[in-house]
Amino acid sequence: MEELLRVLTLALGELLAPATAAYALAAIGLNVHFGYTGLLNVGQAGFMLLGAYGFGIATISGAPFWVALLIAMAAGTLFAVILGLPTLKLRGDYLAIVTISAAEIIRMLGRSTLFDDYTGGSAGIRGGDYKGSFQELSFLPDGRTMIGPLEYLNNGSDSWWTRIFAWTLVILALIVVWLLTRSPWGRVLKGVREDEDAVRALGKNVYSYKMQALILGGVLGALAGIVYVLPGAIAPDSMGRTMTFWVWTVMLLGGAATLFGPVLGSMLFFFVYMVVRTGMRTDLMEFLPIPTQNVDHVAGVLVGVTLMLIVIFRPQGILGNKKELALDAR
Amino acid sequence: MPDEKTVNENDAGAAAQGATDQDAPAVSETAKRAGRDLSHVAPEVGVAKPDAILTARGVQRRFGGMTAVDVDYLEVERGAITALIGPNGAGKTTFFNLLTGFDKPNQGMWTFQGEPIAHKSAARVARAGMVRTFQLTKALSRLTVLENVLLAATRNPGERMFASMFQPLWAGTEARNKEKALEILERFKLDKMRDEYAGSLSGGQRKLLEMARALMTDPAMIMLDEPMAGVNPALVQSLLGHIQDLRDEGMSVLFVEHDMHAVRHISDWVVVMAEGRIVAEGPPGSVMQNQAVVDAYLGAHHDTDLGDDALLDPEVLARLEAEEEKR
Q: Signal peptide location in the record (chain A) (predicted)?
């Protein structure tokens, strides 16, 4: 029983964890790409890693926090423009191929010895090197605070301050995306998703709308990257393809083209993931033939299976509209 | 013009009557009614029209060694319904795609309302006032019917990314657009479906929705790619009525079509393409009698009703085949 409580507490902690917020933010960006505009971005982790590098390297070079934040956003914008320029005139599949390889290129360049002085190679950048300016911003008094079963330091890496900042960003992103998608601009994006030739025939510059969407989602991805590395360090190998697929899972789980889908998806995903991982380690689950050292792998397999099950049995996700989906003959 | 009304009321009857009448008068009733009498224009390929809205010169499109479109000169009259017909593979749709910016020509130029629009993007062509529909209708399935039409509105400040976040900047425009969209939907009898997803509409309703969407852009010219394809006969009549209404409101219409009855009864001018070239032009009544057209497009047996039970009779079939052999 005590063990069960511990598992639940850990899982509850995941609901508010900075990483959960980071994934939610990245999935909100991916939702702008895929859910609203129909762009197949299979390299969201690339945007995140670039944002993290942008923020980290700028801070280490002496930029104040907000300037570093803007630099990260600019890096996301630039990446989106570079990827979009050659591919957005072509069919959707091309963007998918280009994004997945570009994300890998960013990671490979980051971990190569070429830019060792800036990126720290495969070891990455230590958190302590770039967190100072962020933690100085905190208005919380020092000490620890316990809310319900959750207790964290007020300030520091894995702190309430990091959580407040992360979720504030998520809320701001939600507001921006809500304002944009309820507007005529959002309607054009949805039109592009449904049939870009039809929208083109009505005199809209489809290319420009797709580029705007790619940039917006990419900037959100870059911000997500910052949130992701604020409690820890910048490690290029932890921000690779796996991360992209998790962002996809989070978005599809919650429901593509829904406002709150990415947030709900992220919370649910990490809650269940924590329950599964810690749950399998408890004595209660001793009857399972899974050695402790393999628990994480099994959990990873379950993530993959979940993604498949969602796509097959509930492609509209949790918040998605079944009626809307019934029309999708493609 | 009091005459206009009377003819208009008789139109349905005239159309029904005409459907059985193979020898339609040289000038269609509709042309007279709209005051677009092209009867004094010589029925020759490349002839100049009194008031051309679209002028194309030397348009060529090649796919590898095959020349799909090779149009020397064509003028399309303003405020008239022009039909573009021809057998399968004649290059009608390719020519259509070129004109609307959905394909790029190997050479050639054309002007629309005096403005050169060759090599312009499809969106630019549409903004210049030439809006098209598609043969396979492109309803934006997961948008509502009303949203489909609203999307077509032009110059909406809310379609700019930054302005769109501030509703007061576009709420007024949106409200006016909505009023107009609802009027258009009512006209096409889609107003009851306004909040349904466009994907739930029937094939015919989608055709109407596409037309409604095109109309919402206030075009000078509407380009319809096979508007009657896959539409049941009852709706064809209503579609024809809508197309005539567009013309009567001063819009120019160019449409690609296979349905000969439709072409005969609503078009003011017919352009016939075969093997990429324009082989004939003229008023619908006389162009059908042009021997080159009859041979190239309609075939020697265009008088034979293919739905006729006589074709089930092997003797009749054999006779037709023998005649075909002789030619």
A: none
- Could you list the residue range(s) of the whole structural domain that residue B73 is in? 2-135+221-289
Q: Are B141 and A330 in contact (CB under 8 A)?
A: no
Q: Does A205 sit within 8 Å of B151, measured CB to CB?
A: no
Best of A202, A219, A220, A328 to disrupt the B interface (most B CBs within 10 Å) is A202
- pLDDT in 10s for each residue of chain A, 330 residues: 788 899 999 999 999 999 999 999 999 999 999 999 999 999 999 999 999 999 999 999 999 999 999 999 999 999 999 999 999 988 888 999 999 999 999 999 999 999 999 999 999 999 999 999 999 999 999 999 999 899 999 998 999 999 999 999 999 999 999 999 999 999 999 999 999 999 999 999 999 999 999 999 999 999 999 999 999 999 999 999 999 999 999 999 999 999 999 999 999 999 999 998 888 888 777 777 888 888 888 888 988 898 889 888 888 899 988 766 555 544
For residue B208, give the DSSP letter: H
**Domain assignment of residue B324, yes or no:** no
Q: How many domains does chain B have?
A: 2
Cα–Cα dist A233/A242, whole Å: 18
- Measured distance CA(A238)–CA(A224) in Å, rounded: 14
- Residues B13, B129 within the same domain: yes
Query: Which strand (E) or helix (H) includes residue A308?
Result: helix A295-313
Tell me the shortest Cα–Cα distance from A180 to chain B, in angstroms.
5
> Which residue do the tokens 């997500």 mark?
A224
User: B interface toward A at CB cutoff 8 Å?
Assistant: 100, 102, 121-124, 126-127, 131-134, 138-143, 147, 150-152, 154, 156, 158-161, 164-167, 170, 174, 197, 199-200, 213-214, 217
CATH for B111: 3.40.50.300
Could you tell me which residues of chain A have a Cβ less than 8 Å from any Cβ in chain B?
Answer: 176, 179-180, 183-188, 190-191, 193-195, 197-206, 212, 216, 323-324, 327-329
Give domain status of residue B215, yes or no. Answer: no
Question: In this complex, which of B100, B132, B150 lies closest to A187 when CB atoms are compared?
Answer: B150
- Of A201, A166, A205, A169, residue with least CA distance to A185: A205
Q: Which domains does chain A have, with CATH numbers?
A: 2-326 (1.10.3470)
The answer to pTM > 0.95 is no
Q: Is B187 inside any structural domain?
A: yes
Per the CB < 8 A criterion, the answer to whether A157 and A233 are in contact is no
